[in-house]
Amino acid sequence: MTEQPAAGDGAVAGARRVWILAFVGFLLTIGAWSVAAPYDGTPDEREHMIRAAGVAAGEIAPPPADAKKGSGAFQDVPAGLVREQCWQFKPAVSAACAVPPGSDDTPVRAGTGAGRYHPVYYALVGWPLDLWPGWSGVLLARFISAGIAAALLASAFVVAVNWSRRRLMIAGLLVAVTPMAAQMASAVNPNGVEIAAGVAFFAATIPLFLDRRPKPHHGLLILAGISGLLLAMLRQTGPLWLAAAFVAFAFPWRQSNVGRLVRERAVWWWVGGIAVAAVTAVGWGVVMKSSDLGKYGGHVYTYGQAALAETDRWRGYLDQMVGVTSWLDTRMPAPIYLSWQFVAATLLIGAFVFGRLVDRWRLLVLIVAGTVVPSVMQVALIKQTGFVTQGRYMLPMLAGVMLFAAYVWEERGLDATRSRTLVRLSVIVLLPIQLFVLILTMVRWQDGLPKYLTFRTFNPFAGDWHPPLGSITPLLASVLGLTLLGVLAWRVSMRPLNEPDEPASAISEQAPTPDLR
Fold it and tell me: Which residue, 76, 183, 81, is CA-closest to 128?
């Protein structure tokens, strides 16, 4: 007798196709930044490359030393990676004045501010830098980091398709993956993978904790586990993001899936693994003193003055989250920031308006963890470090805010037709901005930016420096990747015709609870 295919085989195959297409789209979009940037073209990339090459060579825990402004460590790395820069923080100066990475593999002792950081990420990306310290090794290391981020984001995209009732979480994902997130994911820097892990973690944990539909959730658990492990180890803020997610989604117990999840053995294995990773990372930080950021000097503030100054800096943080690119020295025209922030604010306001009291509580926990806590830490450390906080550091948590806001709005108030419209509006508004930001940043690297921009400024083929694979390569990759993501998001935003739409007030199959408005 011929064996009949299982009923879920078609759904699995469809999810696999969506993942592959999304992965290719994200990899092209992020990889475009990888091949467009000069050596050390993004914040602290040289520091992280030296750390990665050192770890790959076996120097995993170098003694803490005064390697950079009172912090960091020294590593033995190929001489071809040790380069000084001449254009950072000088937007009118192109990258042509800098010496590119070379193939000289003679070991030299180099200081790096990242020398005390947790080694897991650097072990994954560092081996090409140790073997081929020229452009080939740099690009391959960047592509490894970009590939990890693209895989996480593609998995989050599949979750948004399969677990978002009206696909509105796709809009939340597009908002969360800002041009700044794409630039950081393209570089050798754990912050880029951390942002992608934050997107994947919240995409998985939101339905895992809150969705009551009787659907298999093993894929959600695996994605939450893998991304949770990464968050626990990549940067010191990871345990804070994990704790905030648990507080937000586990409480109140009766309105979450915690009671069901704690009865599953696989859940305890993943929770145990993440806990061990987090404790180990904290222990590493204590032993290696990785929380000692050094002394950056600057003005002497009282704590009250620092608190007021920090609130004033939030306008800049919001723009940095969207994209103040290169070495935070390339600003976009104001409409770019306002357009992106308008879409983000639309999702957030919609969630607060249509959400119940418990939804607002969860949003508030995520927002406080992603904004207030980092600002309080910045003020507390002002006398030691000065102002070192950047908007990109908060993106892993604020990605969760955007995804949960979309989840709440579609669950409580937005019907399928308007959800689809909002997803497609996000495609139309946000994806062209991704390309625009890449083009302007390429112009900055290749030719420098004049004091006042004109239309003649936007020529990514001009300049006295060009990417090692040529200027056309990143542009073509970005156009193809963004087009693929746009078409995919546009098409999957249409609900299946055989799935009846639910009334706006419908809530997932759950036990009756008081309507906490």
Answer: 81
d(CA 90, CA 86): 8
Residues 416, 421, 424, CA angle at the centre, nearest 5°? 125
- What are the pLDDT digits (tens) for 267-298? 999 999 999 999 999 999 999 988 777 766 65
CB count, 10 Å around CB of 279?
12
**Residues with Cβ < 8 Å from 308, sequence gap 6 or more?**
none
DSSP state of 217: -
C-beta of residue 155 within 8 angstroms of C-beta of residue 403: no
Count of helices and strands (H, E) across the chain: 20, 3
Residue 11: band (very low, low, confident or very high) from pLDDT cuts 50, 70, 90:
confident
Where does residue 121 rank: exposed (0-12), middle (13-18), buried (19+ CB within 10 A)?
Answer: buried
| Contacts for 7 with CB less than 8 Å, ≥ 6 apart | none
Please state whether 512 falls in left (phi above 0), alpha (psi between -120 and 50) or beta: beta
Three-state SS at 65? strand
Q: Which helix (H) or strand (E) holds 339?
A: helix 334-354
* Beta-carbon contacts of residue 42 (< 8 Å; ≥ 6 apart): 183, 184, 186, 187, 189, 325, 326, 327
Q: What Rg do the C-alpha atoms of the chain give, in angstroms? A: 23
What are 249-267's pLDDT values in tens digits? 998 888 888 988 999 999 9
User: Do the strands 107-112 and 64-68 form a parallel or antiparallel pair, or are they unpaired?
Assistant: unpaired
SS3 351: helix
Q: What is the largest CA-CA distance in the chain?
A: 82
User: Residue 508 has what pLDDT?
Assistant: 37
Instruction: Tell me the domain boundaries of the chain.
Output: 16-494
Judge contact between 508 and 215, C-beta under 8 A. Answer: no
pLDDT tier, 71 (very low <50, low <70, confident <90, very high otherwise)? confident
* Listed residue (485, 506, 499) closest to 150, CA to CA: 485
> What SS3 state is found at 13?
helix
Please report the pLDDT score of residue 496 as a whole number: 44
The residue written with tokens 């994902």 in the block is: 173
Non-local CB neighbours of 318 within 8 Å, separated by 6+ positions: 337, 341, 391
| 159 neighbors 203 (Cβ within 8 angstroms) | yes
In angstroms, rounded to a whole number, what is the distance separating the alpha carbons of residues 253 and 99? Answer: 58
| pTM recorded for the entire structure | 0.93
User: Amino acid letter at 129?
Assistant: L
